[in-house]
Amino acid sequence: MISFNLSNRLIFIFSLIGLGVASFLFYEYSLSGPIFCPTGAGCDIVRASAYTKILGISIPLLGMAYYLTMAVLSVVHSHQLPHKLVRKLQTISASAAVGFGMYLTYLEAYVIEAYCFWCVLSFIISVAILITLVLSRDKRKDENRD
C-alpha cells in the first residue's frame, strides 16, 4: 500500500508523462512523413491502419484528453475537495483507459500485426496509473473507521 499523498503525486506525474506521449503522437499523426519510432516501422503501420480514429476523433487526441483529465483530477483530489467522488472518477477513468488500451493492443497484435512503441508506452502508463490507484491508501478513510 502507498499513501494517499504519494499516490496522488504519482498519478499526476504519470499523467504528465502520458500527456507528453499522447501529444507527441498527435503531432506525429498530423505530419505526412514517417513517425519517429525507436522500434522500427510499427508506428507508421499502426498510423496507416483503419484504427487510428474512433467516431472521427484521433486516438492520440483521446489520450491527451484522458491524461489531462487525470492530471486535473489529481490536483482537485490534492485539495481535499469531494475526494470520494474524485477517487471514483479517477478509478473509473483509469479502468476504462486500461480496458481501451487492452483493446488497442489486441488490434496491434492480431489485426494490424504491428506494434507502435508510443502506443504501448501510453498503455503501460495507463496501467501504472490504475495500479497506483489500486495500491493507494487514504489515511483519512482509515482514520474515520476507528
What key attributes describe this structure?
de novo design (two linked rop proteins), mainly alpha, two-stranded parallel sheet, 146 residues, single chain, 5% strand
Describe the structure.
This protein is mainly α. It has helices at 4-30, 42-47, 59-78, 83-112, 117-135, 139-145; strands at 2-3, 53-54, 57-58, 136-137. The relative contact order is 0.20. It has one domain (2-145): VKOR domain (de novo design (two linked rop proteins)). The strands form two sheets. It has a two-stranded parallel sheet with strand order 1-4. A two-stranded antiparallel ribbon has the order 2-3. 75% of the residues lie in helices and 5% in strands. Strand 2 and strand 3 (57-58) form a beta hairpin. The protein is built from six helices and four strands.
What's the helix and strand layout?
Blueprint lengths: L1 E2 H27 L11 H6 L5 E2 L2 E2 H20 L4 H30 L4 H19 E2 L1 H7 L1
Parallel strand pairs: 1-4
Antiparallel strand pairs: 2-3
Helix pairs in contact: 1-3, 1-5, 3-4, 4-5
Describe the structure in brief.
This protein has 146 residues and is mainly alpha-helical. The protein has helices spanning 4-30, 42-47, 59-78, 83-112, 117-135, 139-145, and strands spanning 2-3, 53-54, 57-58, 136-137.
